[in-house]
Design a protein that fits this description.
- The chain contains six helices and nine strands, in the order H-H-E-E-E-H-E-H-E-E-E-E-H-E-H.
- By secondary structure, the protein is an alpha/beta fold.
- It has one domain: Alpha-Beta Barrel (TIM Barrel).
- It has a nine-stranded mixed sheet with strand order 3-1-2-4-5-6-7-8-9.
- It starts with a helix and ends with a helix.
Length: about 230
Amino acid sequence: MLDLPVANAIFSDMSESDTTDRENPDETRRSHRPVWRDDGQLLQINEIFYSIEGEGVRVGQPTTFVRLSKCNLRCHFCDTDFDSYREMNIGEIAAEVARHPAEWVCFTGGEPLGQNLVPLAGHLKWANYKLHIETNGVIAPDERLFELVDHWTVSPKRYPVVQGFERISELKYVVGKSFREDRVEEELAEYVYLQPESSEPQFVQKALDVLSRHPRWRLSNRIHKILGLP
């Protein structure tokens, strides 16, 4: 687990090799970072949509996804265009969420913990939604979120998980060329999932080989992609 000073340094001054968008190498790095507002009343939202949860413990459950814009990391395998956004207040977000039938709401990104989610999470919890956050684990959460969020997915990308996570429901690792099983922090969560990068056969086989040595871990197969869902 990464201590907070080191994590803060990573967030504030990441190396160019870690954060440069490979397709837009000349783009200003700072423009990729999430925007934090202390009151949390206005958030930069990339999209809000309804689908099923396609990964991990909650696979198959109907879910409304609130994708927050911007990310403090730049991963070459990421298939999400999360830089565009519109600014929405809590009422507007809640109204859009209410258009969909799901009981679960998942905050995803980008990196959702880069924005102040406490007011929105409180509003949705008061409306009896079940809440899920998926984060890269580099930004320490506001401790108040642990009273509001039911399910925590931490998906580490190159860095250990930062201190400050009171609980983690599941760890999810993308298995690609650089994946190393000795960096899996399995003691932090009840469940560990391995997700082959882009579902490429070579990485599926690599994940299966790793699972043969770690039978407690599980394979995540991105069911929503197989079904052609968002």
